[in-house]
Amino acid sequence: AYGGLGNAYQSQGDYGKSIKYHEKGLKIAIEIRNRAGEGVAIGNLGNAYNSLGDYQKAIQHHKKDLKIKKEIGDRAGEGRAYVNLGNAYQSLGDYREAIEYHEKGLKIAKEIGNRAGEEITFGNLGNAYRSLRDFQKAVEYHERKLKIATELGEVAGEAYTRLGNAYQSLGYYRKAIEYHEKDLKIKKEI
C-alpha cells in the first residue's frame, strides 16, 4: 500500500511524499524479511530520486535493487533494474554507461519474452544514441520500438515523435514531417 501511494505521489510530481511512502514500505519489507518487497521499494526510491534530479542517489538505489534482484533470481526485476540504471545514467548525461545498462536490460527482456520491456528499452537506446548524435542508430532503435508498439496494439505517438526527431537530425525533413504528422493525428484522436 505504501508503494502504491509512493508511486501515485511520484506521478503527481510530489517526490518528497513519494520518497516518504517508499521509505515506509521499505522499512516494513526489511522488518518482515521480504527481500522481493525490499527490492521493489528500493527501486521505487531510485525512480523517485531520479525524478527529483538526484541522480547519484538514484544510481545507488538502483544498484542495491539490482543486487537484490540477482540474489533472489528475479530476472524480470533484474532487467527493470538495468533499465532504471540506464535511465539514471542517461539523466546524468553519461550516454555510454546508459547504453551499457539498457543493453543488459534488453538482453534479459528478450530472454524472458518481455516484449513491452523490449519496446521501452529500444526507445531508451534510441534516445541515448540521439544524444550521442548517432542519428542513424537512433532511427534504428526507434523503428524497433515502433514495430513492437504496433504489434502490442499500443498508441505509437511517442515512437513517431522520436523517429521524426531522429530523421530531422539526419536532415531527412520530409520523413521527419511524415512521422510528426502521424504523431499529431494520434494525439488529436486521443
Task: Give a quick summary of the entry.
With 190 residues, this protein is mostly helical. The chain has helices spanning 2-12, 15-31, 35-52, 55-72, 75-92, 95-112, 115-131, 135-151, 157-170, 173-189.
Q: What can you see in these coordinates?
A:
With 190 residues, this protein is mainly α. It has ten helices and no strands. The longest helix is centred in the N-terminal third of the chain and has 18 residues, at 35-52. The radius of gyration is 18 Å and the shape is elongated.
Task: Give the helix/strand class.
Answer: mainly alpha
Q: In one word, what is the shape?
A: elongated
Helix content: over 70%
List low-pLDDT spans: none
Proportion of residues in extended strands: under 5%
- DSSP strand tally: 0
Mean pLDDT: 93
C-alpha termini separation: 31 Å
Topology of this structure?
Elements: H1 2-12, H2 15-31, H3 35-52, H4 55-72, H5 75-92, H6 95-112, H7 115-131, H8 135-151, H9 157-170, H10 173-189
